[in-house]
Design brief:
The protein is an alpha/beta fold and about 325 residues long. The protein contains 12 helices and 11 strands. Strand 1, helix 1 and strand 2 form a beta-alpha-beta unit. The longest helix is centred in the C-terminal third of the chain and has 23 residues. About 35% of the residues are buried.
């Protein structure tokens, strides 16, 4: 019998993080035969594979190889080899926040056939570095700049049920969350001709295909060790622009900003983030609200994220010339 649920984990030299990731999967309160894990490794030079192999007795795990060091390519390889009716990916530095994650997240998809996917909520881990905590208080783990330009879960909620929230999206209201569990068969045709599986495209693709209903489970979620430093933030923003945004910009379904219509918001954001005074007030307010001093990093985080994007745009134009 094939598993109902497939989890794909792209990995390259992740021996420090992947153990915690796989451990959070191994302790899930569901039958082990009901899901599978596929680790797609980019020929790691550390003990990533060895660590993953140690879990073979505890979970149904397969190890695949990908010579191209690109997480989105690895996600597609995992998608093509998946057996589950439901599918999700997770990074090696992510972990399920509790033992009920799989059970709670699959419930809406089993109860309501209209639901195409279930958005994952990010949760705060008090032991994570300050920069990661700053972003994790947002349920989609957005930078303040992305939060400013995109919609949140409350903008699409149609009904709050006991176990999950029913959400409805249209082409103008798609949240910037690609981390989700969805029905794999719904995007077969879209994925087959694509070199990458770009996760934040999936909700927009599903909506375009006429699947407007999604779910959100506020009682569970994912912990993600996203950032350790501003330098890492800078590198990730540049890499995302170079590897996923610009190579696919003409065919992308989801764009977090409309440069023709949103230019007044761009001006407002630049005035806000460069004032330093206003971001400092916001940081103090959030620090008091959440009782966490991590938000004192937010003014510098805003500047680093904003100018990384500007730098990525300018360098891309130079390449074109």
């Amino acid at each position: 019998m094939n598993p109902k649920f497939t989890i794909v984990i792209p990995a390259f030299n992740e021996e420090e993080d992947i153990k915690g990731c796989l451990e959070s999967i191994a302790i899930q309160d569901v039958p082990k035969s009901s899901f599978e894990v596929i680790v797609v490794d980019n020929y790691s030079t550390d003990n990533t594979i060895k660590v993953a192999e140690n879990f073979k007795k505890r979970i149904n795990i397969r190890l695949l190889k990908n010579k191209i060091k690109d997480a989105e390519v690895s996600k597609k390889i995992g998608f093509e080899n998946a057996k589950g009716e439901f599918f999700m990916y997770m990074d090696a530095d992510m972990r399920f926040a509790d033992k009920q994650f799989i059970k709670k997240m699959l419930l809406p998809l089993k109860l309501d056939k209209r639901i195409a996917g279930n958005f994952v909520k990010f949760k705060v881990n008090p032991s994570h570095p300050p920069l990661t905590r700053t972003l994790s208080y947002d349920i989609f783990q957005r930078d303040p700049i992305f939060e400013f330009f995109t919609i949140g879960i409350e903008d699409i909620v149609e009904k709050k049920n006991k176990d999950f929230w029913l959400c409805k999206c249209d082409h103008m209201h798609v949240p910037p969350q690609g981390l989700m569990i969805y029905r794999r068969k719904l995007i077969f045709d879209y994925i087959k001709d694509k070199p990458q599986l770009i996760d934040n495209e999936i909700p927009a693709v599903l909506v375009e295909k006429g699947h407007h209903y999604f779910a959100f489970v506020p009682s569970t979620g994912m912990e993600h060790l996203l950032l350790r430093s501003l330098k890492e933030l800078w590198k990730k923003r540049i890499r995302n622009l170079q590897r996923t945004y610009y190579p696919n910009v003409q065919t992308r379904k989801f764009k977090w900003i409309n440069w023709k219509k949103d230019w007044p918001k761009v001006i407002l954001w630049m005035l806000y983030t460069n004032s330093l005074f206003l971001p400092a007030l916001t940081a103090i307010y959030k620090s008091l609200k959440y009782k966490d001093r991590c938000f004192l990093n937010e003014p510098m985080l805003n500047l680093a994220s904003t100018y990384a994007i500007i730098f990525g745009i300018l360098t891309n134009r130079k390449r074109k010339k």
